[in-house]
Each structure stands twice: as structure tokens, then as C-alpha cells.
Amino acid sequence: MLLRLPNELKIAIIRALDRDVPTLRNASLVCRDLLPFIHEELFAVMNARSLGHPSTHRHRRSMVKLVISDLSEDASSKLAHLKPLIENIRSCSLPRLKAIHFINVDTRTTFYMNLIPLPELLPAFSTCQTVTALNLSRVSFLDLNGAQKLICAFPHLRHLRLTDVTIITHEEDATSGNDLSAVELLRPRLASLFVSFKNHNGRSNREIAQWLGRSPSVRSIATLTVQTRNAAADIVLDSFGDSVMHLSMPLCGLDDHVYSGFLARFTNIRTLTVFLEAHFAREGPWILLPPFFECGIIPEHLHTITIEVRVAHIILLSWAIGWPALDRLNYVLDEGRFAALRKVIFVVHWEEAPGWSPGAVEKEECKHHIEQRLNNLVRAGKLETRLHGSNSYSHVCDDIACLLVIL
Q1: CA-CA distance, 86 to 90, in Å (whole number)?
Q2: How would you classify residue 110: left for phi > 0, otherwise alpha for psi between -120 and 50, otherwise beta?
Q3: Measured on CA atoms in the order 210, 216, 219, 223, is the torsion positive or negative?
Q4: pTM to 2 decimal places
Q5: Please, are residues 231 and 199 in contact by the beta-carbon 8 Å criterion?
Q6: Facing residues of 274 across strands?
Q7: Peptide bond before 285: cis, by omega within 30 degrees of 0?
Q8: Closest C-alpha among 224, 222, 228 to residue 238
Q9: 309 vs 211, 346, 377, CA distance in Å?
């Protein structure tokens, strides 16, 4: 039966296994015809260390994502580990490579980019015609120019994720871009930007955001995600405007901006996601929610709103929601200025803890109360309610998985 399936379905079956190694191994024993597709899935993500190992040579053409982790050795050792990567890029041996991820999995420390041989890496990266995504997670640059040169090295970069990126030294002219080449001044031209600055390094946040806001990306970014608990939400949002069509942002920390037309430049928003952190005190950012939709945005083209409530504490779900704010929101979103609105997705997401997870009755009651408070949207057929949880350590597990060397 499997032999007669088209390759597209075989690939879909393998990808549905979510790169679980024991399951993929069992699948390879069930049908030898699946083995080539299993190998491609297994070696789609590789660590830079593994490229020099002989057992990976025949699989490196399958690599889609490359992970470069903090190597914690002296400069010569780092260069030795990265030399196979440089050689593979220069020889065009990685034809499917789409994404590069610099990461430090230890959340207590940072990955010092000035300690890796960037002068040797950057010329190789400049030849990467297939790489369209760059992820910098918990990394630190000596100065802004180092970050600029890395980001601008990729000629076809379209997607950038920045998580706790810091700048060590701050020169007055660091944001001027005077040290960039003529080619680098034409980059990056991003289609999407994800920003999560939780380290409260205000000056680093401002320098990076303002540089991107002056780069060609200010005219090309269509998707902007500013994660919750963000120390620089206002700075990032203030750097972009009418090119953005899909915006995700927190309300927490924007108390002074909700009433001021802060997002008046965002005139083309099609989809909007608002992150709300649940607190024991019900008000919190809920107080900001109705006025934000009343006077904080321009909804002329807005067709989908997602309100995502994140519950990080062990509390009753009903305590996580500001019910008076929903009563007011029910009428705000029913006004004529939201004529283009087709769907409102209300998400309650909690982090499960050992021995705790909301029961079925509690979830159903919460869902019922949400729909009761937003009854105008229910009658219009616009409301979709979702309640789900996840393991609070899942993001750490994802980072560790990225660092596994497949041999």
C-alpha cells in the first residue's frame, strides 16, 4: 500500500512524526521505501559541529537548517569546528540550506559573537544564495556594526528572529552605518521580523530596532511580531509602519501609548494578535484592551483579530480574564469602523505544571463565559474560542533538540 502512495504523501507521513527519532527508526524498519524520506527528515536540522564528521557527508545535502551553538573553546578550536561549514558553503555542498540559527541554550549566559571567527564566516555567508532565514538567540555582539555585518551578509535574507540580542559597547555613531559597504547599505530587505528582548538592555534594544527601522526593511516588512514580556515593545513598534500587514504585539508596557494614536502609521494591518499576560489581579493589561481597539489602531483593513491570553501561574482560568473588559470589547468590535472584521479568535493558553492542569468542566465553563460576554461576535458568526495548554519546559526542550548532533 505504501509503495503506491505518491512521494508527497510519504513526505507528509514522515513529517507528521515530528522528528521523533525512535518512531522514525521504527518507520524505517516497516518499509524500506520510506528510508530516503526518513533520512531527509533526520538530517534536515544539523549542528555545525557535525559537518566535519565523515558519517554526515552523504546526508549534508538534506540539511535545511544549520545550528551554530556556543562552542566554548579557544579561537583556534572554534575555527577548526567551523572550517567544514565554511568549506561546504563555498563549495555549494548545502543546496537545501534555508535557515541558520545562532543559539546559546544556557539561558543564564550569552553567546559572545566576537569570540567566533566572523571574518572567516562572513565571506562564506555572502555566497549563500539559498539562506532566507536567520535566528539569533541569546547572543551578544561587541558593537552594533558586528550585528549589522552578520545580518547584511546574507544576500537573500527575508526572515529574522532576534531573541535577547545585546550590544556590549555603545558608540555615539554606532547606528550610523558608516562602516557598512555600499552593498550592505541595501540590506536587509526583510519580509518578517520577530523580536523578543527580555533582558532590559534598553540601549541595545533601541540601537538594533532603530537601525532596522532605517534600513530597507522599513519598506518591506509585512509581518512584525513583538513578543510578550518585551523590554522594547514601544521602541520596535515606533520603528515601523505602513508596510506591516500582520502585527503581533503585547499590551503590557504600553500604558502610555494606548490612548495616543501610537500605531497611527500602521494603516494596512490585516491581521492583529494581542498578547495578554494573566495576573492574579484581574485588571492588569485588561484595562488597556478596550481603549486600544477604540483609539489605538486603524482598523480599515483589519479582518482577523487574535486575543491570546497567556496563563503562567496556577490559577483558575476564570481569574485570568478581565470580564468587564470583555463586556466593553463586545460593543467596541461591533461598531461600524470594524466593518472589515471577519473573525475574532480568543485563545487562552496555560503552562501546565506537575500535578496541575485545568479540568474539562473548568475549561468548558471558561469557554461558555467568554462566548456569553462576546455575544455580539457570536451572533455575527465571528468568534472562535480556543483553550489549550503546553509544558512550560517545551521551549527549552526545543533549544536542546536544536543542539543534538546527528551522527
Answers
A1: 6
A2: beta
A3: negative
A4: 0.84
A5: yes
A6: 249, 307
A7: no
A8: 224
A9: 31, 8, 18
Please, are residues 366 and 387 in contact by the beta-carbon 8 Å criterion? yes
Report the half-sphere exposure of 200 (CA within 13 A, side-chain side): 2
74-80 contacts at long range (C-beta below 8 A, 24 or more positions apart): 75/115, 75/117, 78/115, 78/116, 78/117, 79/117, 79/120
**CB atoms inside a 10 Å sphere around CB 320:** 24
**Distance (Å, rounded) from C-alpha 19 to C-alpha 41?**
7
Averages of pLDDT over runs of 10 residues in the chain (407 residues) are: 73 76 78 77 80 75 83 55 73 84 71 73 86 91 89 94 84 53 79 82 74 91 87 83 94 72 88 83 74 89 95 80 92 92 95 82 94 96 92 46 41
The secondary structure element, H or E, covering residue 140 is strand 139-141
User: Residue 160's closest CA among 142, 180, 136, 138?
Assistant: 136
Cell of 380: 455575527
